[in-house]
Amino acid sequence: MLFNSFEFLLFFPVVTLIYFLLPHKFRWFHLLAASCLFYMFFVPIYILILIFTIVIDYIAGIAIENSSGARKKWFLILSLAANIGVLGFFKYYNFFALNINGFFHVTNIKGHVNLLDIILPIGLSFHTFQAMSYNIEIYRGNQKAERHFGIYSLYVMFYPQLVAGPIERPQNMLHQFHERKYFNWTDVREGLKIMLWGLFKKVVISDRLALIDNNIFDKPHQYTGIPLLLGAVFFAFQLYCDFSGYSDIALGSARVMGYDLMLNFNRPFVSKSISEVWRRWHISLSTWLNDYLFTPTVTSLRNWGSGAIVIGLMLTFFVSGFWHGAGWKFIVWGLILGVAIIYEFFTRKWRKKLFKKLPKWLGDSLSVLLTFCFFAFSCVFCRAHDIKDSIYIVTHFFTGWGQTLSYTGFKAMVTAIGGNDLIFGAFNLGIGVLLIIILELLQSRMQGNNPGTVVAGKPLVVRWGFYLAMAVSVVLLGAFNQQEFFYFQF
Amino acid sequence: MNKNIRNALVFAVILVATLYAVQYAVDALYKRRATDKYAKLLNHQLDPEIMIFGSSNAIKHFSPAIIKNVTGSSAYNMGYDGMFFMQYYPLMQEHLKYEKNCKMVVIACNPYLGKDWIVMVPHFFYAWLNNPDIYRSFHEIDPARMFKARYIPGYKLTLLAKPFYWGMVYRKPEDTANGYEPVLEHGNEFNDFIKPFREPIDPYVYSLHKSIVSAISAKGIKVVLVMSPILDKGRELILNADSVIATYRSLEDTAKNIYFLDYSKDSLSTDKKYFRNYTHLNKRGAEIFSTTLSADLLRIKNK
After folding, report:
1. Whole-model pTM?
2. Is the four-CA dihedral B5, B10, B13, B18 of positive or negative sign?
3. Complex ipTM over 0.85
4. Nearest-CA distance from B185 to chain A in Å?
5. Which of A185, A211, A475 sits opposite B158 (nearest CB)?
6. CA–CA separation, B295 vs B293, rounded Å?
7. Phi and psi (nearest 5°) for B76?
8. Please, what is the end-to-end C-alpha distance for chain B in angstroms?
9. A480 in contact with B at a CB cutoff of 8 Å?
10. pLDDT tens column, A412-464
């Protein structure tokens, strides 16, 4: 079930209402059943895969807690292997098979690995990482194993964050399922506001920008220069609004029922460095990678000095890229970001000196601009169909400008990005730019992800007018084509 | 009443009222789209002597200008790509309700007589979902969506095509071809990979045909069912082409003044140069066909 679907509009209030009407002891069951239903709207049979990993992780968690020494380690390895094995099979089998076949072809070795007709179960990457963090935290002694099978299942199946995160930690979530939640108007009100803001970002901004991006990225060779740059910039915003919009709906819907999920995005486009972007973008994944991959790697290689940082960063961003998708373009995307952060690490003193010579406002603005440009550039690898297209796009950013800047060239560009429709192209382009400005203006006045903070303290008419405008915009300007969330593919 | 509940209710009422108001305004603007042929029909502004209904083989094959030249009767082509019978059935009903000049209704027969299809260009019709005939037919095609579009405030606004808002205010150039949109001669779309298949013949869709031809005939208007030329190779792909044609032909016996003209094996059918694909003529073929058809329509008109 998609958050931006009519089904969810019915599902959410019904589930929430029943939740509050039920006695506390039955609520876990109700939420678990609702979460299963939510998941089964996609491909029902795939719920069996989740059940398989849930059973293994639940048993492994208790086994890890009850054992020690090598035995404890083996239980952890077993659980990690089960999770990675399931993810590897469904997400990466065909990728490896294709590459092995490619290798056979290039080296003239006779052999062929059959491809499988499998679809990646939606949200499996998120589910797997959340399940892995549970057993790692038990292994580290930071978390007690959950004895209640239903509550454990709910921890990894909770519908708001089931298919696209945030990738929660057991310390933050498990205890919340045991606590008695009372109906609280403040939570309901604030949760609904956050959901509305998420929906606005998703259907009004992201899906609208997607209408332009799709025309550019689907046929990049038809363009040079400005439209390619425009596509890269718009895609960065599209991706941000898509995923942060999803996260906000997740956070808001959980908040209505009294659950606190972690903030997953914190205005990444005001970052002054790529490393800061990764502290503000998909925070639940970046902290996961930091806690379970980067820090252990650097700690184990601490005798290598700066080399440990380089290896740690490259490994982390390789995994991050590969986690995002089974394709070389995602690996390249991850590695580009890894190299950028290594560059930032080694040049931090030099850059600090340089920027000290500039007025603060100029230094800050330049840092934000350069960071955004680099991030948008890297995102091309994430969105383009393959590395070949990505290279074409990034190598043609600055060609053919003269042509596009002429009246006829500009008109041709707008027509092309409107799917051979000048008016549609101009409309989407105008609305797209306007929406990005609105987004940044609102976010600059917003605390966290709650749009209520923009109009807090204002008269009732202003506050209600603001929410009403946002709700009506969702209906009127939303590109409701049931476009899936971009991050679902991860 | 608890203040929070009262506030929530008041806000919900304001939201629903706003959505209704916006929807009403959008509908009103859309109904005034004078250049859209369906708006013209549903606003009762089209009343030619010969009205042509059908899907792509209507819009691409029947030239109202040629028909007028040969028969001396004004003609209008209401065809639309992919619009199947269950969708233009209520349009025919609506036309019957108001027409005063119509002497002949031409129905372009589609080999597809099935029920499973989609509503084409639904945004052209959302403003008229309160019309019971339109709603009933559209609901039969896409029940869930049409129900929500009619009864849930704001829902149909979410379904509108993306350029919709421009479409409301932007006036397209006046349609000088009376709804006729032939396809160009260059380029073709012959798909060699199509495997032979059987077209469905749904009893319900057939009963709708019977019902509408009877209703038209009852008003003293002649009904001409036309099977356009099909490239011979394309005809071979439709395994039950003869049954489809026999089904249409059987409608002749439904009431008086119903004629079935079968051009599926016309002389054009042997020559690929007149076709865009197996079942659609190009402009050159359409103009030759329209001339032949017009002569037959003149003969029927004079009966």
Report:
1. 0.79
2. negative
3. no
4. 21
5. A475
6. 5
7. -140, 140
8. 76
9. yes
10. 888 877 777 787 788 888 888 988 999 989 988 888 888 888 888 889 999 99
